[in-house]
């Protein structure tokens, strides 16, 4: 098969030579046929190769462009059709080396064109002559100048020897011309450029501070093109000078200046790239030792270095050096995470070379940053000597460790770490430190180990790096989930957080009814005294008695030990009721939740509830005073009817006013205890069950406390309503004083009436004791007539006072109800509904006739 193909190729060559020779002599057997055949086979069997890539499609495209530019569009289309058929043929009988055939046809076409234009083709083709024994000594295929011109006109060329050395003469003349135009050889300029690219001044190319760059001296005579290419090549030296200067300045200033670990890593990454750059310069410097040949046969294959070749070598290093110089300018005033983020911005590039270079650089730069993240998330250690990390710690008290000990530094957060992941990183490290410092717990280490195993990452240094965002996120998520769960378990089980919250609700929010009632009963007389005369130790003893006398005695002793009496700052005229309060001692780590500000808000709620309970207690005390008067009704039969009716009317007014006030206070207390406290506690309990971390728990407690404050009229927007309510409370306390005074007078009247109706002999007996009724001028010492007169005046005055109290109470209640609809909290509608019902009842009672009978 191969022999058959060889014969076909031979026949094709013979036919091609025959047709070329027939153009000169159209005879069946042209002269010199055998000689031309031997010459053709010598060319085909030689090792000469064209300086183009063996691409058939590229050669075909070049031929089509040539035909199209010459105006032969139809020929170009015909050639394209023929080439498609030629290229599609494969297998036996097809041409394997298709691009060589096309290239041969293209060269023949160009030779014909050059022959028409009278060009000397010896410039383009090598000088391959025939052997002496085949053609004779110094003989040529074409003898004489005329024959050579004739063959050029026929469109083909036969190469012969050059006995006159015309080509070498031309080379020498060209060399002399180059020397006349240049004071410096190209080899010297190449070496100077290589020196400049290393930041070293050469003999002719030196750094010009006025131009801020390397330049060729104006005194050196070189062509403009040479000067331009030298200036472009020396840009690499200027960039190298900037990058290398930054590295030297940063490293020389360490550790006196805060370069930081990220800055050191950046300098190390730049130095590593410069090391590769030095290797390239070493190779180029070795090549620069070879002389640069002039235009000759072997000029394209020599291992030399010219300025143009240097520009090709410098193409890739120039891109990298420009990137490094831009990064140096960007990062001069940055450090830590801010520096890594600035470098990351340059990595978003479509060029694959730039992308790979920046990725390699960033992996080195971000290594310290990711090591800080690993150490913080798994160990809770903040290894940040130079303040480069996006988490900042500060010395605080133990109770403020969680809230104020650590925070995010937004300026140091790199862009490749999202805000949500940064928050998880912050909380995970805080949880470890909180467990270690506040809870004295070491169980977080096992949770961290489990997180590493679940995330599938290594715990060794350098295990995380730039570009491994998924691995970082997986590690942070697993560590946060396990460590947060362990922290909540410690808070709930070891430190009994839920039990302490319930204890605060029972005692500070007065949810333990029997305890509160007994406490008010036993501390009431003591708190009625001036505040500056009350002993806090005595109150503490009374508190202990109230605990032992109620169901509170069955609570955990640790909880009861935290409950204490607190006397608030007081002035000269304050009473014990105004300064008495209870406090709960929340120790570490519970004081992270129950901070001073939180306990201050609890104190405000306690004072409000204590005031409400005090008003309720006062009304109950008034009722106890008013109820037993039914046993004295038979005494007033001897009084005049007018006085008796006046007494009944006053008692009725007092009873009705008490009913109004009691109804309002009862509804208000129901709203506070059930609509506010119980609902808020239920919501808080549900949120505690679903809390996933300490921040969720703090948020749930803050929401719980905020809900109580707002619904209890203690918020900033309810201050007017709050003040109006306390004026109502003060009026109710005044009513209690008037009611006590009224019934005290009635009891005195009863005693004197009984005394005046007794045996006259008893009147003559001397009194053994002296009381206030025997004082001169007292209204029960002047006889029955005077007794009746004074009783009428007393009841009239008390009736007027009660009427004034009723009027003021109605006015204040109307004002209070008018303020409720403008409140924005929706739960206040329950209070409005209940208060309106109370007000309607009061109006109904007031519409009754004062002469209606009253059960006394």
Automatic annotation (TrEMBL):
Gene Ontology biological process terms, A to Z: cytoplasmic microtubule organization; meiotic cell cycle; microtubule nucleation; mitotic cell cycle; spindle assembly
The UniProt record lists the keyword Cytoplasm: yes
Start and end residues of each Gamma tubulin complex component C-terminal domain: 499-834
Cell division listed as a keyword: no
A GO CC term assigned to this protein in UniProt: gamma-tubulin complex
PANTHER family, alphabetized: GAMMA TUBULIN COMPLEX PROTEIN, GAMMA-TUBULIN COMPLEX COMPONENT 3
Subcellular location, record wording: Cytoplasm, Cytoskeleton
Domain Gamma tubulin complex component protein N-terminal: 190-493
One GO molecular-function entry: gamma-tubulin binding
Family: Belongs to the TUBGCP family.
The protein, known as: Gamma-tubulin complex component 3
């Amino acid at each position: 098969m191969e022999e058959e193909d060889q014969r076909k190729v031979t026949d094709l060559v013979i036919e091609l030579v025959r047709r070329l020779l027939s153009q000169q002599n159209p005879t069946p057997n042209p002269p010199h046929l055998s000689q031309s055949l031997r010459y053709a086979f010598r060319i085909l069997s030689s090792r000469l190769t064209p300086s183009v890539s063996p691409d058939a499609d590229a050669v075909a495209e070049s031929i089509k462009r040539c035909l199209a530019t010459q105006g032969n569009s139809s020929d170009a289309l015909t050639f394209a059709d023929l080439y498609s058929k030629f290229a599609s043929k494969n297998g036996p009988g097809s041409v394997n080396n298709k691009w060589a055939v096309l290239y041969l046809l293209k060269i023949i076409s160009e030779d014909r064109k050059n022959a028409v234009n009278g060009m000397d083709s010896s410039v383009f083709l090598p000088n391959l002559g025939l052997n002496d024994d085949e053609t004779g000594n110094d003989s040529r295929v074409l003898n004489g100048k005329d024959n050579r011109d004739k063959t050029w006109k026929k469109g083909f060329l036969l190469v012969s020897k050059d006995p006159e050395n015309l080509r070498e003469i031309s080379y020498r003349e060209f060399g002399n011309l180059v020397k006349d135009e240049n004071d410096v050889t190209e080899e010297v300029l190449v070496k100077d450029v290589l020196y400049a690219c290393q930041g070293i001044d050469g003999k002719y190319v030196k750094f010009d501070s006025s131009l801020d760059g390397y330049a060729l001296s104006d005194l050196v005579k070189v062509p403009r093109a040479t000067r331009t290419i030298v200036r472009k090549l020396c840009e690499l030296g200027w960039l190298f000078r900037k990058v290398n200067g930054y590295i030297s300045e940063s490293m020389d200033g360490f550790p006196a200046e805060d370069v930081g670990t990220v800055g050191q890593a950046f300098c190390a990454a730049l130095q590593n790239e410069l090391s590769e750059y030095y290797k390239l310069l070493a190779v180029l410097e070795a090549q620069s030792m070879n002389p640069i040949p002039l235009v000759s046969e072997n000029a394209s294959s020599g291992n030399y270095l010219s300025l143009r070749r240097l520009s090709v070598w410098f193409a890739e290093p120039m891109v990298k050096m420009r990137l490094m110089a831009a990064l140096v300018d960007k990062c001069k005033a940055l450090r830590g995470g801010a520096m890594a983020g600035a470098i990351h911005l340059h990595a978003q590039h479509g060029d694959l070379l730039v992308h790979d270079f920046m990725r390699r650089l960033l992996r080195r730069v971000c290594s310290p940053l990711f090591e800080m993240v690993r150490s913080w998330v798994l160990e809770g250690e903040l290894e940040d000597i130079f303040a480069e990390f996006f988490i900042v710690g500060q010395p605080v008290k133990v109770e403020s460790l969680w809230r104020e000990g650590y925070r995010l530094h937004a300026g140091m957060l790199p862009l490749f770490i999202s805000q949500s992941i940064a928050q998880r990183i912050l909380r995970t490290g805080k949880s470890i430190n909180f467990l270690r410092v506040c809870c004295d717990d070491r169980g977080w280490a096992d949770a961290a180990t489990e997180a590493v195993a679940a995330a599938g990452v290594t715990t060794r240094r350098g295990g995380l790096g730039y570009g491994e965002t998924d691995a970082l996120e997986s590690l942070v998520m697993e560590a946060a989930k396990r460590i947060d769960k362990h922290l909540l378990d410690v808070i709930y089980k070891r430190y009994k957080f839920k039990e302490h919250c319930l204890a605060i609700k029972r005692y500070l929010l007065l949810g333990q009814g029997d305890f509160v009632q007994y406490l008010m009963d036993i501390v009431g007389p003591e708190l009625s005294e001036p505040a500056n005369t009350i002993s806090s130790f005595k109150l503490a003893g009374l508190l202990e008695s109230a605990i032992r006398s109620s169901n509170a005695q069955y609570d955990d002793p640790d909880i009861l030990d935290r409950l204490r009496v607190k006397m608030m700052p007081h002035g000269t005229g304050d009473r014990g009721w105004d300064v008495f309060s209870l406090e709960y001692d929340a120790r570490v780590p519970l004081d992270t939740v129950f901070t001073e500000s939180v306990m201050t808000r609890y104190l405000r709620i306690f004072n409000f509830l204590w005031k409400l309970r005090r008003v309720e207690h006062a009304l109950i005390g008034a009722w106890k005073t008013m109820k037993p008067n039914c046993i004295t009704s038979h005494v007033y039969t001897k009084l005049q009817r007018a006085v008796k009716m006046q007494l009944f009317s006053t008692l009725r007014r007092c009873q009705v006013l008490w009913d109004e006030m009691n109804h309002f206070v009862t509804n208000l207390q129901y709203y506070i205890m059930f609509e506010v406290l119980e609902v808020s506690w239920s919501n808080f309990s549900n949120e505690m069950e679903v809390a996933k971390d300490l921040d969720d728990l703090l948020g749930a407690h803050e929401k719980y406390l905020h809900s109580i404050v707002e619904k209890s009229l203690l918020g900033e927007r309810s201050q007017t309503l709050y003040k109006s309510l306390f004026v109502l409370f003060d009026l109710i306390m005044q009513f209690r004083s008037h009611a006590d005074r009224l019934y005290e007078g009635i009891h005195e009247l009863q005693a004197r009436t009984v005394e005046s109706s007794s045996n006259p002999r008893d009147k003559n007996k001397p009194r053994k004791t002296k009381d206030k009724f025997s004082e001169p001028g007292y209204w029960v010492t002047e006889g029955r007539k005077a007794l009746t007169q004074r009783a009428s005046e007393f009841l009239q005055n008390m009736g007027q006072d009660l009427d004034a109290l009723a009027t003021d109470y109605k006015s204040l209640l109307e004002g209070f109800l008018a303020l409720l609809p403008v409140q924005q909290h929706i739960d206040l509608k329950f209070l409005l509904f209940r208060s309106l019902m109370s007000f309607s009842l009061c109006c109904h009672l007031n519409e009754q006739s004062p002469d209606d009978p009253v059960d006394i």
